[in-house]
Here is the input.
Amino acid sequence: MRWLSRLLHGIGLLAVFLFAVFPFYWMVSSSFKTQTQILASPPIWLFHPTLGNYAQVFADEKVTRAVLSSLIVAVCSTGLSLVLAAPAAYALARYEFRGKADLWFWFISNRFISPIVLALPVYIIARNLHILDTHLVLILVYITFILPIVVWIATDYFRSIPKELEEAARLEGASQFDIFWRIYVPLGAPGLAVSAIFGFIFSWNELLYALVLTRRDVQTAPVVATSFMSGYEIPWGKIMATGTVIVLPVTIFALLVSRQMVRGLTMGATK
Amino acid sequence: MSYLRLQGVEKRFGSVEVIKGVDIEAEKGEFVVFVGPSGCGKSTLLRMVAGLEEVSAGEVFIDGANVTNVEPAKRQVSMVFQSYALFPHMNVRDNIAFGLKMSKTPKPEIDRQVAEAARILQMEALLNRRPRELSGGQRQRVAIGRAIVRHPKLFLFDEPLSNLDAELRAQMRTEIARLHADLGVTMVYVTHDQVEAMTLADRIVVLRAGKVEQIGAPQQLYDHPANTFVAGFIGSPKMNFLAVQAAPAEGASLTLTHPSFPAPVRVARAGGGEGELQLGLRPEQLHFEDGPCRIALKADLCENLGGATLIHAKTAAGETLTLQTAGRRMLKPGEAFSAGFDPAGAYLFAPDGRAL
Here is the structure.
């Protein structure tokens, strides 16, 4: 009965796969359809693809500017978080100091609070600092979300690096910074990459704070995509094409680092 | 003044006292081995010499300088770790060159030093490999190479061979001995293996529970152990101990009796002592059915080593005894026989373990 169990396994896997991939397929295929084809019932499976929606999207300066804004915000917030969090993670992983456990818990507790609770205070602070509707405000706010993620993942990862490597380097005359930069950063790269992906995806997709803190000058891609949903008609083709454009960079980014990511997530198991 | 000196060194982890006042001296060029059972503090002591562990009390001197509060990098010592501690993301060349790069040595000089170390350790062909592409013995060699290039004042080894299989361990042991002879440097070596200690050391430091039991040349420790612990620890198979009754006899000697002695044994001891003492006899000092003094025994188990046989036997008092005889001699369990020995070579220990 081995073939039967394999068949059932296959059917099960296929069902899960379709369930996960279908919305994605629907978005991408709809982006190549006309409005009538999208709204047709029963759905049309075979059609002549049109690039009309994409032409509209790329012609719309709002969308291209929004993608650029999203890119600036995501790259800066992720990059700065890495730069700030990696040394913090090293210290938490390898040094004993007063209040270490409390500090560690503080990083975790940041994520206990529902983001909406802080939206208003953050808005008032940003308004008083006159940084509303700028890249800066989103970068600063996203760092507060991404930094703790990077700190946890990197701390855990750094802890798994054998302590003798640090001791050997110390005896060889390496400075504190040398040890961090030449031993921990390269060996912790998979862990840092994983946390960078999480951070990048978070800021790329974030909608709530982007809606609250920006108006007209700096709108990120998710904000623009939802803004199409107003007025008399919902332009599904354009929304789907925008969605595809938004998803694309993250997908490419994730594929580029996926090997590192798998290694990063399984590191603990092989040690 | 000695090249390496530990003076009244103590180490506490919280309330646990791991090293309880240790004094050790070593001359330049000596091979010093710290040996003892696990948990005796030998690795901690080595790490204090390296500066990786702070000293709770006492002082450490290297080449005349007090380095007690000097950070590890400035002590000019190199260490070979049990786990090798090679940097996995660097190839062999970069691993060996790491310390030289840290000290901002010019590139041509680094290349020359690395080539020299590779030649000494016969690893020229491996320089571009990563540690994970090397066998255990090769990794060990890289770790030694990393230590060599910096020309340190002291080489420290922390159980460097315990991750290798028996054959490779014997081979690396001779290589380390050769390296010491070739370089003429001062080495401090930690092991729990008394064979490594005997074969490598100029000077052995036997440690137990954070205290020095005895310091001396291997042969000195073997021939004149200071107490029952050192007597039992150095030598393989272990020394046999029998609880004997001693009574003073004429001419600065003692008469020893034991339930398994057919006749009392007379040993010369000026120091005297009476009552219950420990008689120590090494397995090779006992002879099967031969010798001036005899012990009646019952065979327990025989181990054939090919060229020799180890006979494990029991005395009438229930003590276990091992004797080594040449050739093959298999006895049945329970078979009675006698072992003879020469009382002149026997060891005697006081009830507190001290050698008499």
Summary: Helices of chain B lie at 42-50, 92-102, 107-120, 136-148, 166-183, 194-200, 218-223, 228-233. The domain at 260-265+279-349 of chain B is CATH 2.40.50.140 (OB fold (Dihydrolipoamide Acetyltransferase, E2P)). The first helix of chain B runs from residue 42 to 50. The two ends of chain B are 32 Å apart (CA to CA).
